[in-house]
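subagent[fold] <- orchestrator: predict structure for attached chain, return tokens only, no commentary.
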Amino acid sequence: MAKVQPKVKKLYYSIGEVSELTQLKAYVLRYWETEFSQLKPPKNRAGNRTYRQKDIEMILNIKDLLYNKKFTIDGARAVLSGKEGIPESGVQSESLNEKQKVILKKIKEDLVGILSIIAK
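subagent[fold] -> orchestrator:
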């Protein structure tokens, strides 16, 4: 992800400045703070959020996961915490019960059949 270079290099940025830099609304940034433990900008004495460059980079990383790579919030949270990689097949077989496995096997067989018809 490309680093955002603000017009003026500062130590701390307001939520309005970060909103403009990242092209996200301020309410989205505040919501993401509740969803992602990695995003906790400190507040000044007046109670205003003060974002640092590392916070902006985390926001851009979250934005990339959610908007470009189409992760859910839970999926993005798992990727950021390092607990889970991107599953190869898109579904983790350990979390499926037997009925779901049978259904997925049937769908796979049907898709293979459709592919063979298309290939003819």
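orchestrator: received. Logging for downstream: The chain has two domains: 1-86, 91-120. The helical segments are 15-22, 26-35, 53-68, 73-81, 98-119.
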